[in-house]
Amino acid sequence: MQQLLKLGTLSLALLTCQLASANEFYSADRQWLFGDWNGERKQLEDQGYKFTAAIMSQAATNLDGGYNDNNTLENAGQLTLGANFDLNKIAGWENTTAGLMITKRDGNSLTLERIKDPRASTLGNTQEIYGRGKIWRLTQAWIKTGFDDNKVQFKIGRMGMSDDFNSSQCEFQNLLLCGGQLGKSIGSIWYNWPVGVWGTNLKYQFAPAWSLGLGVYEVNPDNVKTQSNSDGFNLDMDNVEGATIPLELAWKPKLAAFNSLPGEYKVGALYSTAEAKDIRSGEMQDSKYSFWLNAQQQLTQHGTDPKRGLYISFNGVVNDKATTTVESTQQLALWYKGPFDSRPNDSIGLGFANYVVNDRVTDKQIATNEGRGYYSYDAIASDYVPIQRDELNVELNYTYQWSPAVMLRPNLQYIYQPTGVKEVEDAWVAGLSMKVNF
């Protein structure tokens, strides 16, 4: 497959032509770009077969600042092909579903090309769909079944960890403002989309608004290899190094303080049995851990439409300081759905996200440089190790939801202290996300 950017550009060109001709192909209420296959798609869904196909494109250009201020435009793309099966309808298996998802990523990252000092380890990214290789991947292949009127749900197969734990909304293009946070700070043991791993989890809804989840997932470095497409479909467990075990308590209330509007609040912890290197001593530890808090609340409702209004979310992660480069992350986001009566499905978003680098890592970097005779930032020396502290990401965006099939999201991003290196000039980035559901 050639670059997904070409596919995205072609799709947009086709859409623009259809708009100009006022053809129903581009109508504002179209569910899928290619329609419902003369009614067959809806018929298949009624029989238990639901198919999805989508292209996501994220372009970004550096307006000012960064390590290299020569302007360029970089695009990252992702193709997603999926299917969900209602096995109650198909085979009579009550409360049982299955999922299959294949993904392909392509393109380049503006952060790697222009924003960061190439000698420093990457923290944030201006394009959240970049990463984990330009290869095809089996992202999901699982089956889930429910018991006791679906109060207990059991899931097993290949899946991403943030599908069911530390999950969060994605209303932004910036990496740390989108989705689950753990995979962005402890990516060696926690694998976000599009990486799938062998795992299983159990969710128990013990009260109407309360549930408890427990999972077990393999820690296998083979799952994040990126040399060839076969790496994305590797199903063996030959090099498993341990297991990541998350536990999460979730509360979904309708709070009277917010006019009985819905929210979701989750606290969780994980324990990994895989060995991890101690940052200070260099010795191997037999485990590591993390804690998190996810909170999302609808604050207002616009008129009688329950989906329109102001939303707020906070996500925080605290990692094992002895073994982790990023000690913690914090994310605060606000977005307003349906800001205009003429555009009830659009939204405006503003988000702030921060990486906090472990001070033990900073101290080690300083000591390494001093041992090499460097007592200040050296922009030229190849063996100089940039000193990393905190990185702050800010994004303001507008989501233009032309139809359920087509979304455009222009955005402006500000990166303070890229990769935590204060000597690198703060960066301003303009971005554009596009998603087309086929």
Which features would summarize this protein structure in a list?
16-stranded antiparallel β-barrel, globular, 19 strands, two-stranded antiparallel ribbon, mainly beta, 438 residues
Structure in words:
The chain is built from six helices and 19 strands. The longest helix has 17 residues, at 4-20. The protein is globular. The protein has one domain (4-437): Porin (Beta Barrel). The chain has a 16-stranded antiparallel β-barrel. A two-stranded antiparallel ribbon has the order 11-12. The protein has helices at 4-20, 40-46, 87-91, 110-115, 229-232, 359-371; strands spanning 49-66, 73-86, 96-107, 136-147, 152-159, 197-207, 210-219, 242-251, 254-255, 261-272, 276-277, 284-285, 288-298, 309-319, 326-337, 347-357, 390-403, 406-416, 425-437. Helix content is 12%, strand content 45%. Mean pLDDT is 92; it is low at 1-11 and 13-23. With 438 residues, the chain is mainly β. Keywords: Signal. One of its GO terms (biological process) is carbohydrate transport. This is Porin. It holds the Pfam family OprB. Residues 1-22 form the signal peptide.
